[in-house]
Write a structure and sequence with these properties.
It contains 14 helices and 16 strands. It is of the alpha/beta class. α2 packs antiparallel against α10, α3 packs parallel to α10 and α6 runs parallel beside α7. The structure holds pyridoxal-5'-phosphate.
Length: about 425
């Protein structure tokens, strides 16, 4: 395939936009080469600026779980836009989406809408701090909770000490309140909790991780986290920006059967428009302004176009819960197909999968946390990524990203993907 016009557009974009993109992973830094500029999309397919048709395994990084330009969503947005795009005043549709979202997920009484997953996670942590009166949080290495300061933290010099900034611009002052633990390592969490007894507001986690590839927590780890939080008065925050309304109606809380204290949402809940949200039981949510002392606000929060897209999307998922099974079946089919080809080629690999999230790691050891995820062979990954792209298959341009299947993908698309892999020399 030819990606000539995309490359020209990228060169032009780089003159005016840092790195030519408005979010770094789009720039293909991890795999090399120029990113693809998309012109339009429908169902499972992207149509790029060079006239290529690509099978899409990203679906805008998750929101488009029913495929691109899904008609009920598009119609809802177009119709809503006729009446104005923003008012900065309450609208009925905000309550409609809130009511529907709360009815679909377990254990939540109230929800506040924001504009991104980043905002949702940032606000959830502030709320947890305000509610508990404590400052410190624990996060897990490799989990992504958006780009706000508290989360851009890497392990410090000693495991039981403070985190340190992993981006310039994040202060030591902020970093000292974020402690780092390893995913699936309950003993490590216990140590941190002991060493910081009475100082922790929250433990935040991707309940099924998707930002270091797809990583599934062990039962004992998740139950252990819940128990520690309950015993120590720490709030357990599930970052369900990726898993919410994707794994099941009730997201990871439902499939793992674990109740979180605060849950954050994004991606699917906005149906492809900028929406994030956080939810909790009434006692916690009542701490938020204007009822409570914890400040949080947004000029475009609850935007009518965004709410209409979210409402149309969640309505479809609520009325047709079989879609989650359909997606998981497709992911399983893809998993088997890819595993067979890689085994045939004698390429060391691990495939992690949960529901419609799946990732391929070129490694011979199980991928259970950030360290094991980072051991994947990136040279093989690059060949795999570009080989697939050459054959019209659009995969995440980084080994640390999960694929997000959308239900517009047909088995013929999955077969085309598996067959493309057969042709690649890895
Ligand atoms: C995408 C993502 C975020 C950030 O959401 P944005 O809308 O990009 O700000 C946070 N947490 C998780 C788990 C995500 O996957």
């Amino acid at each position: 395939m030819i990606y000539q016009r995309s490359s020209a557009l990228f060169a032009e974009a780089k003159k005016y936009i840092p790195g030519g993109v408005n979010s770094p992973v789009r720039a293909f830094k991890a795999v090399g080469g120029d990113p693809i500029f998309v012109k339009k999309a429908k169902g499972a397919y992207l149509y790029d600026e060079d006239g290529n048709k690509l099978i899409d395994y990203i679906a805008s990084w998750g929101p488009l779980i029913l495929g691109h330009a899904y008609e009920p969503v598009i119609n809802a947005v177009v119709e809503k836009a006729q009446n104005g795009t923003s008012f900065g005043m309450p609208t009925e549709i905000e309550t409609e989406l809130a009511k529907l979202a709360i009815s679909m997920v377990p254990n939540m009484d109230k929800i506040r809408f924001v504009n991104s997953g980043t905002e949702a996670c940032m606000s959830a942590v502030r709320l947890a701090r305000g509610f508990t009166g404590k400052d410190k949080i624990i996060k897990f290495a490799g989990c992504y909770h958006g780009h706000s300061d508290s989360f851009l933290i890497q392990a410090g010099s000693g495991a039981v000490t403070f985190g340190s900034p992993n981006s310039p611009g994040v202060t030591q002052g902020t970093a000292k309140d974020t402690l780092l633990a390893d995913y699936n390592d309950l003993a490590g969490v216990k140590e941190l909790v002991q060493a910081n007894k009475g100082e922790l507001a929250a433990i935040i986690i991707e309940p099924i991780a998707g930002n270091m590839g797809c990583i599934v927590p062990s039962d004992a780890f998740m139950k252990g986290l819940r128990d520690i939080c309950t015993q120590e008065g720490i709030l357990l925050i599930f970052d369900e920006v990726m898993t919410g309304f994707r794994l099941a109606k009730g997201g990871a809380q439902e499939v793992l059967n674990i109740k979180a204290d605060i849950v954050t949402y994004g991606k699917v809940i906005g149906g492809g428009l900028p929406v994030g949200a956080f939810a909790a039981r009434t006692e916690i949510m009542d701490f938020l302004a204007p009822d409570g002392p914890v400040y949080q606000a947004g000029t475009l929060s609850g935007n009518p176009l965004a709410m209409s897209a979210g409402l149309a999307m969640l309505t479809e998922l609520n009325n047709n819960p079989d879609v989650f099974k359909s997606l998981a079946d497709k992911a399983e089919y893809l998993h088997k197909g890819i595993a067979e080809v890689l085994t045939e080629k004698k390429v060391a690999h691990q495939i992690n999968r949960y529901g419609s999230m799946i990732s391929v790691h070129f490694s011979d050891e199980p991928v259970v946390d950030f360290t094991s995820s980072a051991k994947g062979n990136n040279e093989t990954f690059k060949k795999y990524f570009h080989g697939m792209l050459e054959r019209g298959i659009y995969l995440p341009p980084s080994a640390f990203e999960s694929y997000f299947l959308n239900d517009a993908l047909g088995y013929e698309d999955l077969d085309a993907t598996i067959n493309a892999l057969k042709e690649i020399d890895l």
